[in-house]
Amino acid sequence: MSVGKSRWDEVGYIISSRYRVLVLERLIESPATPSRIASDSNSSITHVSRALQQLRERSHVELLVSEDRKKGRVYGITDEGRSVWETVNTKNMV
């Protein structure tokens, strides 16, 4: 299967931030809260939250609970995010 230009644009976007990489790498395992992702990846909650927001804007992750909820927000990886992550992972780009 050929990887199109837009896929490579997304791959480049992901790998240009170690925090975006860490977030997707963690969410590929299972949905998680920002604090769990930060804890599991030894990162600050601020960096994780920013990466989640950026990834959500590009439809790589989604909020799995109500938008109104401020605590205990659970995020999961989307099919698009999974597809881009598989490209990053199989091409050993991180």
TrEMBL record:
UniProt cross-references to InterPro entries, sorted A to Z: ArsR-like_HTH, HVO_A0261-like_N, WH-like_DNA-bd_sf, WH_DNA-bd_sf
Origin: domain of life: Archaea
Signal peptide: none
Alphabetical list of CDD domains matching this protein: HTH_ARSR (cd00090)
Pfam families: HVO_A0261_N
All copies of domain HVO-A0261-like N-terminal, residue ranges: 9-89
Protein name in UniProt: HVO-A0261-like N-terminal domain-containing protein
